Amino acid sequence: MIPVNKPFLPAFEKYTRYLEKVYAKAWLTNNGPMVQELKVRLEDYLGVKNLLPVANGTLAMQLAYKVFSLEGEAVTTPFTFIASSSSLAWEGITPRFADINPKSYNLCPQAAAKLISANTSAIVPVHVYGNPCDVDAFAALGKQHNLKVIYDAAHAFGIKIGQQSVLNFGDASTLSFHATKVFHSVEGGAVIFKNSDDYERAVLMTNFGIDTSTGGIVDNGINTKLSEMHAAMGLAVLDNIDAIMQHRVALFEQYQQQLNEVAAMPQWHGQANTNGAYIPVTFADAAQCSKVLEHLAQQKITARRYFSPSLNTLAQYSANATDSCPLSESLATRTLCLPLYYDLSAEQVSTVTNAVKKAVYGTAD
Asked: Where are the coiled-coil regions (predicted)?
């Protein structure tokens, strides 16, 4: 059996060394030493400032929306995981879906511009599969209409545009540290703010709005704190992150080479690196995609329709039925993510690609 994903687990002894420090201080939560160390090390590794660790990636997005007091509508992409839009709806913000760029699979700035109205308070693009958006176009759009630009960067750990972290673009970027991600802390996430004032407000909000220096409640808040146990796992994983990314990128490139003429793949940002987060492949039509998925299952290989369905088609967003996104809707029926994780071998990748070729051509040759 080859699963579509498998969490990386650091050596148990390495993890327990961090846990021993937690036990020694009996400090389990409330911004303890492990969380503080993780914050500092992540800022250094990623090349960012104002990084705030939180309990998960969805809360990271919700916290960012609250910090900026968003309301009304936000323009976002339908080709992404449900949390990108449900986090908006949960905060009472109506997601408006603009179609995607057919080459990058990311939110199209020109399509997004057509949905901006007096009710719009933000643009929420997603770096889909870790592939950076057109950050310059969204920066110009945000400036033109006085809108916040908040990036869902859940897949973009370690991604740079040139020498600049992709997390430094926009008013804020959010990360997920879920177990399935390139970097994880079992559950967790982070918000990276452009401005320190926004970061400081978020720090207050993540602890119920309590100013710890005075004990006074100075803002509305919630509990989004990351625990010491989760931070310990994050630190243990971070110790191995270069090897993790190097191996995943090598497998990603092997997939590209072996499936180059079999299926389409997103056109990667010309100035960005890759991190091996996912390997999406797009087939000629929905029927071929289903045939490949069925054949892989018969070979005990798990693939995933990621992302499907196109979010603009979901019943809970029926009030915005006018948000037509034909490119996203088409890709959602034709795109699969194939197995990609640290424990996967090059030989197993060849097994997967041969199975894909056999499903498409009737032969693995």
From this structure: none
Q: In this predicted model, what pLDDT tens digit does every residue of 278-312 receive, in sequence order? A: 999 999 999 999 999 999 999 999 999 999 999 99
So what's the architecture of 241-361 in CATH?
Alpha-Beta Complex (3.90)
Q: How far, CA to CA in Å, does 17 sit from each of 20, 37, 127, 136, 227?
A: 5, 14, 35, 43, 16
154-174 pLDDT tens trace: 999 999 999 999 999 999 999
Map the chain to HEC letters.
CECCCCCCCCCHHHHHHHHHHHHHHCCCCCCCHHHHHHHHHHHHHHCCCCEEEECCHHHHHHHHHHHCCCCCEEEECCCCCCHHHHHHHHCCCEEEECCECCCCCCECHHHHHCCCCCCEEEEECECHHHCCCCHHHHHHHHHHHCCEEEEECCCCCCCEECCEEHHHCCCEEEEECCCCCCCCCCCCEEEEECCHHHHHHHHHHCECCECCCCCCECCCCCECCCCHHHHHHHHHHHCCHHHHHHHHHHHHHHHHHHHCCCCECCCCCCCECCCCCCCEEECCCHHHHHHHHHHHHHCCECCECCCCCCHHHCHHHHHHCCCCCHHHHHHHHHEEECCCCCCCCHHHHHHHHHHHHHHHHCCCC
Q: What is the pTM of this model?
A: 0.96
Q: What is the pLDDT of residue 211?
A: 86
pLDDT band at 322 (very low <50, low <70, confident <90, very high): low
Query: Could you tell me the residue ranges of all domains in the chain?
Result: 12-238, 241-361
Of 255 and 213, the one with more pLDDT:
255
Q: Assess whether the region 12-238 and the region 241-361 belong to the same CATH fold.
A: no
**Fold for domain 12-238?**
Aspartate Aminotransferase; domain 2 (3.40.640)
